[in-house]
Structure formats: structure tokens, C-alpha cells
Amino acid sequence: MHRSATRAGLRRFVPVTAASLIVLSFAVTATATAAPLRASASWSQVFTRPATPAGSRPMGGLPGSTVLQGAVALKPRDTAALAAYAAAVTTPHSPLYEHYLRAGQFTARFGPESSTIAAVESHLRADGVRVTGVSGNGLLVSFSATAADAEAAFGTRLESYRLADGAVAYAPTTAVALPASIAPAVQTVLGLSTTLRPIAEPLQGRRGAGTEPAVKSPATPVGPKACAAARADAAAYGGLTDQQIAYSYGVDGLYDAGEDGAGQTIAVYELEPFNRNDIRTFDTCYFGASKASAMLKRLTTVPVDGGQQVGYGSGESELDIDDVSAVAPGANIEVYEAPNTDYGLIDEFNAIVQEDNAKVATSSWASGCEADVQA
To answer: Please, which pLDDT band fits residue 200 given cuts at 50, 70 and 90?
Structure first.
């Protein structure tokens, strides 16, 4: 599959640090619109009932035996201090500029108190919820529970819905609550709703839009060189080849110095599968069959929460990988894949940070933070 990049610009590569990603994930949601199942002075709301998608139809209570996978997301120990550190470490001329935290330092400085984690675990187990793990930074307490036990643990009711596209999903019918002794330390609860399913937007081509844009292309053998099919697609759809994108972003200067990303690892965030043969075809277009085979050996998949990817495997995910592969042909590429659920999309970001294999990460999925997920 020969494709050219037809987006307005190459998606931004973001340096990965525990502070710079996790700080994006914590803000408290607002006031109640419905009383929790266990309304009591000793219980406090964690987040309001999420809105159901337009066109969805209620089908009755979720069967109590349904097994849910999710996590209680905790707040950092000092949110303001974390935000200040994240700003300082990414601001040129700051004394802390690029002084990133080493493994374990985030937990020690900003992670929740061990007593807080223990209290959350104790509450979950008391209601029959099985704690399946705690992330290294302490921010996610993962669990597995039947719907009946989850309703008891989180003071809510769960309803089944038929969505407009025919899919069946579930979501709380009341605000979610926890005991007042632990609620202030909780950001949200993930895994209680499956109505949120991010999807990739189709590319909007402009066939016959004119000739290939007049952007100079590097002549170096290190960088990408668009084959005839890629050049023809770019001209037909009014887009840019990855060769032109590399030049537009000034990467050709690195190519001239013989730098192609060798020795670097780039994490790619995905919520849908991809076809390795398509990636090979794309790389062959820009680098030839021999180099494409070598590049494919440096492309690995990292499943999060079992992976469980669904989709056609020929859309957003492949465009993401194509762009990374073309611009940094010598790099190792790790494609992280998680289930397309509110828990999966947050846990995947957390996994990239916690595993700390990549100094660069890229995502074209506008997943947002926990508060955005619930909204």
C-alpha cells in the first residue's frame, strides 16, 4: 500500500517522562447530578454519571455476573508540585531543564502515599473486588470484578445500552462514589463504562487537487526517497510525500550528518491493529526491499491489558507507523496496543511511561485525561 501523508503536518513527537505525561492525567471532576446507590454522609462522589451517546437505548441492568476490568486512578501526592516540576523540566533556561526523573523517582516524590493505596485496596477487597495490580508509580490500582461487586464497591448501578451503531455497551446510571475516607485521593474510576470508543477519522483526500507541492527534497541516501507511486498519490490528493515532510521539518540536516535514528526507540500509541505486510510495502517504496526487511525486524508490538485490538488494521495505526518509519528509518519502533476502552486508553499511556524503553513517543489519538474520559 503506497501512501503519502495528506495531513496538514506531521504529528508531534513528545519526549516521555513520568512527570510530563502523568501530569496531564489528573484533574477533579465536578458535582453530582444523581444520588449514588449508597448515599450516605460517609460516602463522597468521585465523578458524575457520564452522558450516554446520542441514539443509545437502555436495555436494563447489566447482568450481575458480567466481569469488568478497570482501575481506580489516584491523584499524585502533590499535584501542584508535579505541575511545577513538569513545567520546569521542559522550559529552556530553567535550572531543571531536561533534568528528567530516573526510574523510581516519580513514585518517591509524587506518587500516592502507600497508606492511600492500601486503603483503596482494602475497600475493594471488602466488596469482593479482586485487585490485579498497582502500577509502578502508584497511580493506577487495577481490578477485576463482577458487575454486582463493582456496583457495591463504587456506589452506583450499571445499565446495558444498545448504541446507535448496534453495538452493546454499559455505563453507570448514577454518580460514582467511594467512602469519604478515600474519595479525596481518587481521580476517577476506569472500566465502569464501555460507551466511549475512540475511532480513527478517515483521510479526506482531494483527488485531482493538482500537482505535488513544490517543496525541496533531500538528496541524501540516508533519508526517505519517495517511489513513483507515492509521488503520484501525493500529486493526486494534494498531499506531501514523507520525503518532503522530512525536509519541511528540517530532518534532512540530520540525514546529511548520517543520522537516521539508529539506536533510538520510538513508542507508538495505538488503539487499533496494523498489518505488517502493509508496513513492509510502504518501507519498500521509500527504502527498497532489502532495507525494508531490516526495518521490519525492528518493529515490535507491545500488548497492554492483553492487546485485544479490533479494527481493519489498515488505517490510523498504519499511517502513524509509516510516518515514524520513514522519518527515522534506523530507529526501533515499539507499537503499544491496548483495548479500545476508557481503561485501555489510559493504561496504555501509563505503560509507555512505566516501561521507560522509549525516549520519544507519538500518538495521533486524542485520548485526553481521565477527567475528559468521564466527561
So the answer is: low
